[in-house]
User: Fold this.
Amino acid sequence: MAEIPTLVVRKPCFDLPTGCPQCLSAYIYLNFAKIPFQLNFHLNDPHSDKIPYFEVGDEFVAYDNENEGIIQFLRKNGGVVDLDSEVCSLPEWIAIKAVVTTWLHDALVYELWLESKGSAAYSIYYSDLPWPIGKVLSHNKVRSVKVKHGITDDNAVAKKEEIYERANSAYDALSKWLGEKNYLFGDSPSSLDAIFLAHGLVALQALPESSALRIKFLEHDNLVRYVRKCKTEIIEAGPQIHTDASSSGFRIPSTQKGHTSKSAPKREKTDEEKRFKRKGRYFVAAQLVAVAVFLTLMMSFDFAEVEGEKVDGGRNQGE
Assistant:
């Protein structure tokens, strides 16, 4: 009997099997493809761009930062799980993919990290880490998002309006395109359905009621019905787990170089796993140093402010 594959994701939150949009899209895609799989959670390095990753026993693991991501790996290896084979060459599919993976992706990232002051993102990515480390990582991520989108103090308002205008245009176009169909392209789901549904679920479940992006999404009734239908039929039903995984048709690609699973018990660790473990220790040490430097700088800053106030106070008294 073939071993059931495992999808490793960030932790569940906001009444979702995982709060991470990338992880959630992989989860939905696997359900659409009817691939039996188990769900596991990775809590040690939630910031890692390797997550989500897809394991097949001790023989193979595919990381999200390799080969264009988990969904592309599943599409291109095994054949039977390529949900896009009949639509991916259509001009409409290409256009919708561009809108979903840029305008809507950017808007959700902006909401998670900047507009909601990082509270939702912190719950998804860093809440299991020690508080100082989580805050430092969150602060660094906020800064990197601003740099990526060219957001400064001078243009912050204009950038915000631009991001929301694009998101609203994307929602309008998708709402008209979806209409009353079951999926974006007729009666069969594609990877775009998985990606957009993950976006919609996070927007509805994780963002606060005051969120501008959530409010704009709620203005499109058919998109809301589409996402809630997914939640009922897929999310609440749980992952596809069967006792006989051989019926799924999933195959480990013989031409792809596999990575030995780093979480499999009762076997000797490979050199690669030992390197990963050493890197993990170096990461923790580096973050502790970063926290110490951060706290030192903050304390120095506060002390300088206090000293400045004392000097000003002395001058005022002298005057």
Remarks:
- The chain has ten helices and four strands.
